[in-house]
Amino acid sequence: MICTDDAPAHAAPGQAASCGSAPPRIVMVSNRLPVVLERSNGGFEVRPGSGGLVTALAPVLRRWGGVWVGWTGVVTEDGVDTSGLVTDFSQTAGYELREVQLSTQDRDLFYQGYSNEIVWPLFHDLQSRCNFVPEYWTAYLHVKQSFAGAVEAVVRPGDFVFIQDYHLMGLGRRLRDGGLENRLAFFLHIPFPPPDIFCKLPWRDDVLSGLLAYDVIGFQTPRDLENFMDCVRKLIPRARRHRRRGVFVVEHAGHTAQVGAFPIGIDYDEFAVPARDAEVTARVKELRREMGTPQVLLGVDRLDYTKGITYRLRALELALKRYPEIHRQVTLFQVVIPSRQGVPEYQELQGQIERQVAQINGAFTQPGWVPIHYVFRSVERRELLAMYRTADVALVTPLKDGMNLVAKEYCACQVEGDGVLILSEFAGAAYQLGKHAVLVNPYDLDGAAEAVYRATQLTRAERRPAMRAMQRIIRREDIYWWVQRFFAACGVDVAMTTRAAREQAAS
């Protein structure tokens, strides 16, 4: 049931607002606004962003009113006035966008430095890649102040403030210190590390106590939830902790926070329905002819060292050595989406991947058969859907991932229902799909190579039960299910069926 009254809701955290009162206005806060700015004719043009979060939350903001606060991705030194573009988009989006401006120094030290050279690798258990520069923390504090000012400029009494992801973990504490009494919630889209990893963060006490300033803290998996609670036990032993209705309750410094696991999903029909389109079907047939083998393996990854691409290629090479019977029978279609191309470490990773592909193809290519088709570019949506549907086996083998929605997108596009998902046990998706996917440890090259071989030997009939089971899970636990569960934990009733949400998104 969807509440429709116009009166503001004032439910306490953990208590859903009744249908006698409408949900509060929502203030969304994320590092980036849900728009993409592209250079055009010497200037910029704006287009809507994509992704499950935008798909699910934009209708909620439109229906009950709201503001989305974030950065456009353009730095002030570019000399471009983006305010007009943001204002124009707000009028068509049905909710307000409020821009936070960052300088080149902010971008370099906060976004590329603190966020992606410290938090990102540390939270993915890759502390050897961290660069603990004190100036990065100073820049983070400065940018946090900018975001706080933008939120304080738009928030009203009764608004629900929802802050996203690792870039802004401490924003809640800054808002509390500034006197904000609104309900505050935070969701971490990436993993949360165990204490022995987290404690390497020089500012660990500030980060952990800052998180406890929220009313609700959401993680992707029970593993991340347990890691967070272990850090609380170790670093804040005086905090009172207990479980209540499936979540942890932490009382610290006069404040109570609820902490739970809320695995994020996709809009299932956004992938499953267009995957059946005539154009996609025709492209699937073309891809089959182009690959030229009975079975197609697929990898789709953003260029990042956490995705395990180099380990995957080594496992495939081992499989080709050990199981010559799969020669000319399988082809890996590996797509790598460019990311952070100006960063030397990522340029080095790209070069390493390309050398591995060349080495494997040089060692195993035969007339009429190339074992790896490698693409380094962004892929337009119709092509991606066709790739997902074409693939007999998907290789989703990150070294660690908060969730990894590629796994779910692939399953949704399996129209024939007979694909195989080889999934890293360190991906968050393994908690939902692990009983039916082929789980692997991406560091175990022997095991991964054997998994590739076994997957290619399964018959269509043997594959279908597992894929159908995963599709049922992904359809049931979709992005709208995530929104409803998380908002309910925050005391905000936005009960909405998948169909109702899609209809609102299209209206």
Mean residue pLDDT = 90
Query: Helical segment tally?
Result: 19
Can you tell me the overall shape?
globular
Strand order within the widest beta sheet:
5-4-1-6-7-8-11-10-9
Largest sheet report: 9 strands, mixed
Distance between the termini: 19 Å
Overall SS class? alpha/beta
Q: Helicity level, as a percent range?
A: 40-55%
Low-confidence stretches: 1-20
Keywords summarizing the entry:
alpha/beta, 17 strands, nine-stranded mixed sheet, globular, single chain, 507 residues, six-stranded parallel sheet, 19 helices
Describe this structure in words.
By secondary structure, the chain is of the alpha/beta class. The protein is 44% helix and 19% strand. The chain is built from 19 helices and 17 strands. Helix 3 crosses helix 4. The chain is globular and about 70 Å long. It starts with 25 loop residues before the first strand and ends with a helix. 47% of the residues are buried.
